Amino acid sequence: MDRQAQAREKNQNPDHEFITRTPHIEDTSIYTGDKTETIHRNLLTVLNKDFLKKEIAHMFTKVLIPYDFSDDAEYIIRCLKTIPQIREVILVHITRSLYLVPSPERENPEADYARLRLEKVKEMIDMPRSKVRVLIEEISGGEISDAIIRVAEREQVSLILMGRRGRGVIETLLLGSTAWDILRFGPTHLLLVHPPDDDPKTSSPSPCPEIFTRAMICTDFSKPDIETLLSDILPLVSSVDLFHVVSKGDTDEEIGRAMKEAEEKLKNIVICCPEKSIQVRAHVRIGDAADEIIRFSEEEDISLIVVKSTGSRGLVHKIIGGTTEAVARNAKKPLFIIRKSG
Questions:
Q1: pTM of the predicted structure, to 2 decimals
Q2: Which helix (H) or strand (E) holds 172?
Q3: Is it the case that residue 49 has pLDDT exceeding 80?
Q4: Looking at the domain assignment, is residue 249 inside a domain?
Q5: Average pLDDT, stretch 309-332?
Q6: For the chain, where are the E strands, in sequence order?
Q7: 191-240, pLDDT tens digit by residue?
Q8: 271 with 229: CB under 8 angstroms?
Q9: Which of 48, 51, 186, 223 is the most exposed place for a label (fewest CB within 10 A)?
Q10: Which of helix, strand or coil describes residue 290?
């Protein structure tokens, strides 16, 4: 048995109930353009099962799904089973009121019809251990995204799960308006999922692959450190790809220095995962952040792209500033935006 196998065996010993600081040494590749280097990474392993049960997956406990009856929304329902630890699902549909001031005493045929359709969607959700509720929100004016945010705050949801595209410009263009606004102003974590292109040879709906297998963790090293926000995601994944893009530098010397600094910072990121070892790779690329994120996620068959929206210089602020459209429209992988709670 080699050294790594022995280390993994020790890390998975259920008799231990402590945090092992450096139990496992993992070879990790740093990709810098065409150059590949190997570094060694210390992986933390938490072996206390009680700790695992207490801490895992609170961000997935109460999920809000804005539902507009689009293909993206239908696909999300099929993906629910890939998200563990869900205790409650809220399906919300936003409809325009026929009156300036919505009133429960006034009938709105559109709202009644939407409620009937949502009840049918609810019946499709085969999650016997989870509570599923249907909400119809009538608005007489304002943005759909504002209504969704109000519901999220009122219900104190832990995650908003939605499609990146809606039914179209006329009804609800989720990426162009709703998803964009919720990404910028939403009060909680956001998971954007878009179905793959359907195979013209088959009429059956596309199945949802496992989302939480190989996570691409994108960081620009801003505070708070992104690894401190991953406690609910790491127990669910098999491997992690730490990813940083060097996008500034007027000379080869400046770019080279920035790459070396990024490599050193990635070396020092410690991935702490309850009860199991996770394969960790680190990658440094040069170019436009959004382009490199999309390219890498496709080349490496990433299952989930993760960014954070906290910090004045956080990566999600850069994406919003210049490349949200490219990432949200062109990335074929689910995009998870983590927000720091509190």
A1: 0.77
A2: none
A3: no
A4: yes
A5: 55
A6: 19-32, 35-46, 62-66, 88-96, 131-139, 159-163, 189-193, 214-218, 239-246, 272-274, 279-286, 304-308, 335-338
A7: 988 887 655 555 677 788 899 999 999 988 888 888 888 988 998 999 99
A8: no
A9: 223
A10: helix
